[in-house]
Amino acid sequence: MRALISMSGIVGKSQDEVLGVLNSYFNKNSKVLKETALNTEIYKLFLLSESNNSSVILYPELFSEINEVALYLGKKLDSPIFNFYIYDVDLWMYELFCDGKIIDRFCPLPRYIEDIEIEEIKLYKGNPKIVCKFLEAIQFDEIREYYKPWTEKLIKSQEKAYSNDEFTYGMNWQAVDFMRKLGLKYPIVDEEELIGRAFKLV
Question: What is the rounded CA–CA span in Å between residue 175 and residue 13?
Answer without folding.
Answer: 20
